[in-house]
Write a structure and sequence with these properties.
The structure is a homodimer of 459-residue chains.
Chain A lengths: L3 H9 L1 H12 L11 H17 L3 E5 L6 E5 L8 E7 L19 E3 L2 E3 L7 H16 L7 E7 L7 H14 L3 E4 L11 E6 L1 E10 L5 E2 L10 H12 L20 H9 L4 H8 L12 H7 L2 E10 L8 E2 L2 E10 L5 H15 L5 E10 L2 E2 L5 H14 L4 E5 L5 H9 L2 E5 L14 E3 H19 L5
Parallel strand pairs in A: 3-6, 3-7, 7-17, 8-16
Antiparallel strand pairs in A: 1-2, 2-6, 4-5, 5-18, 8-15, 8-17, 9-13, 9-14, 10-12, 11-13
Helix pairs in contact in A: 2-3, 2-4, 4-13, 5-12, 11-13
Chain lengths: 459, 459
């Protein structure tokens, strides 16, 4: 049970909590865009100020890239330490023309706040900051020490944080990492995510003639790099959705009967899901259910294609170059480096004479699964049950939070992935949103979580 | 032999002829770009003014699109009438960053003038205007009537001119159409082009989910439109370069042994050709030589690909839409409408569940071959032999001049395709150029052509 004083304070603070979120969302902190760098840093300063305003001492930790914002409440002996991790950077907003309102001018309609970063991750990480600040505002001590680590490069792979983890291990020392960067299983059906997929990203380039050629004068004489690129990508995955890179599935652990049953027991309707996405049929690797494919099977996706003439009208050329942005989602045990090597080998071996094939790996991270029987998990279940009024389900997630597996390794800490948002919140898509009710409920669930974790004896 | 008075006048006029070309090339008359429309019209006005300056009466013929510029010299009874056709519109200049000097700021270096349109087609059509104006400047009558038709939509398919041909048939009435929009066979090896390929252009769109999706949360659940597009394109042509649209080759006439021999007799070196294009190997339909593939076999090319994230860095999405700009080059007897239907059928039938496939045909035109034994051909051979100092070879061209076949049909006229430029003049590519020596020689060859055609009796 949440302390009534805090409970009522959370209700009073709702408008302020929303105003805070609007302020933060106005900052276009797109970490993949070098020209947005000042905005990225401004978003970091904003959250530092917010933490400072609650009386916390902020550490502004410089990295080779965007700074880390760190803060902590006073130590509480004998109980676990929690580290809240989140990120102040966001995905690019493109394609801009598909947004109903501007991506960085937050707009509230139908109970949702619309803006890039609303759910991924500004809105979600802010729930934990607001809950701690509310708790502190009551004048009572928090029942455990909470540390905050908010970074600015999650959307570009967290490489700089990862590199600094060893030297930050003392600062970040904790028993459990709390991350809200995922979703409820369904509206009002809370979930605890115990598995994430890894990721490996690439740029594939096929180069042909020195420059674009007239498709009349030269058509038939040279291999078209656009066609060569398509053939390489087409060869990478068969019509049953099986990925063709040699050894790609070697380290993929089969799902246990128990886990398949657990997935099957979750309420999921393929037809309704397809309808919600606007497709007539779902598609994926033969022999697996949709949830299995999304959560626990690896994938290969085209993220973008760029080649030749893209404007209005016709330009009849053989393009000199064609490029594809590619990503694989990986399951635990798959090694991103091995996958990168397999992918590069495959494309090089399938690259035909007459074009030059290059593969440039970008960021990568392994997947993870965490134990489902820990006392932290039990505390989280209790907190979610109280805030949502029903028991949470245990799920996995198809997305990647690259740093999670690194935290597990570097800090020897458990991870709690508690999603407050919804699957249709349009993370990484136009019209990203976060329901204000979910935001407020997340703050409340977070407040209860501190109470539940504070009851545990520290090992 | 060219009249010595004209010969010497052509030498005197060289600087003025170059200055004229520079002026015209400065006008960015990109017909496929709606925002460039005022420039396109300005390029038409420029050539109208140039014709007017020589004492010709210009007809400014409005169409549903860009105007036609028409002018004619006085009738000469008893000899053939020649119609010079060319175009004042140009291809887009993109990719701009690959130009050494700006596409619409003509730059002369190493004896070449560099600008979009230098050879395609402003520089080449201007040779005929300059030769006629020079002839008129001497005060002597031209030995035949020359008509000029300069249009502004050749690079977007000439649809409006085509539609108006029946009503313009009297105005344009002629015995032979003269077009310089092709190339010499090799430097200093003049050529008369007796065949052109046709063209059919398309936009292929593959639509999947309503909007871009997070590749983590949704990867494995839906078919990726980028991959689906690649698979469709990959299926369209096999690894031997054979196009797979049903019936695509049905109307393709086999090359005669005589024509294959004629091609084989031309000096052509695959290794040198590959080197000139910057590729390690040539590629095309198995069983045909490079010249056969370029000139007399149909092709399928990707002109452009657009899908998902194209900027810097990584954006891990399943793109909602993927599009390809496609073109086929066709040989005579292939019907562009039949080809369009076959292509659309193929892509619709191969379009998998889970995505929507649409094919939008754009401009199209059949190919052509003209007789090689006409008196006009003989006159052209004599003119080129005098101007170049060696006999021209007979060749075909892989490119398309869509209106040529329409002229043949509507005007019952022969066609002479006389290329003054070079194959490496970068038509449709960055750093398009035209050698000033080729420009001046083209003017001289044109002047001799009027003399040779003027010797013919009109049937």
């Amino acid at each position: 049970m949440l302390d009534p004083a805090i409970d009522s304070l959370l209700t009073q603070r709702q408008q302020q909590d929303v105003d805070d979120l609007i302020q933060w969302l106005r900052i276009p902190s797109v970490s993949s865009d070098p020209t947005a760098q000042p905005h990225v840093e401004a978003a970091g300063r904003w959250v530092a100020d917010r933490l400072r305003s609650g009386g916390l001492h902020v550490q502004w930790i410089e990295t080779a890239g965007n700074p880390l914002v760190f803060a902590q409440t006073p130590p509480v002996p004998g109980v676990p330490v929690a580290l809240v991790y989140g990120h102040y950077d966001v995905q690019p907003a493109e394609p801009l023309e598909l947004w109903e309102t501007a991506a960085f001018e937050p707009d509230i309609r139908n109970g949702n706040i619309y803006a890039r970063g609303a759910t991924d991750d500004k809105g979600q990480v802010l729930t934990h900051i607001q809950s701690v600040l509310a708790w502190l505002q009551t004048g009572r001590p928090l029942p455990l020490q909470v540390k905050f680590l908010i970074e600015g490069e999650e959307e570009v792979g967290s490489a700089n944080l990862e590199r600094m983890l060893p030297e930050l291990a003392d600062t970040l020392a904790c028993d459990v990492v709390v991350i809200s960067d995922s979703s409820q299983f369904a509206p009002n059906q809370p979930a605890i995510t115990y598995g994430l997929r890894g990721i490996a990203t690439f740029e594939l380039t096929v180069s042909g003639p020195r420059q674009d050629l007239h498709s009349g004068s030269f058509g038939g004489a040279v291999l078209n790099p656009g066609i060569a690129l398509c053939k390489l990508i087409a060869a990478a995955v068969d019509d049953q959705g099986r990925i063709q890179f040699p050894g790609f599935y070697d380290d993929v652990q089969p799902l246990t009967d128990q886990e398949r049953q657990q997935f099957a027991d979750l309420p999921h309707d393929d037809v309704a899901f397809a309808t919600s996405l606007g497709v007539r049929a779902l598609f994926g690797e033969t022999g697996f259910t949709t949830l299995e494919r999304k959560w626990a099977r690896p994938t290969f996706d085209v993220n973008g294609l760029t080649c030749g003439h893209q404007g209005a009208g016709v330009k009849t050329i053989i393009p000199a170059v064609a490029t594809a942005k590619l990503s694989c989602r990986l399951v635990p045990q798959q090694d991103p480096d091995k996958i990168a090597a397999a992918l590069e080998d495959f494309f090089q071996q399938h690259g035909p004479a007459g074009v030059q094939v290059t593969v440039k790996p970008d960021h990568a991270a392994p997947g993870m699964v965490s134990g489902i029987d820990s006392p932290y998990m039990a505390a989280a279940k209790a907190a979610l049950a109280e805030a949502f009024g029903c028991q949470p389900v245990l799920i996995r997630e198809g997305g990647s939070i690259p740093i999670v597996q690194k935290f597990q390794a570097a800090l020897k800490a458990d991870c709690l992935l508690l999603g407050w948002g919804l699957n249709d919140d349009n993370a990484h898509s136009p019209n990203e949103k976060f329901a204000l009710a979910d935001y407020h409920r997340g703050i409340r669930a977070s407040a209860v979580l501190w109470s539940e974790l504070g009851k545990l004896q520290h090992g």
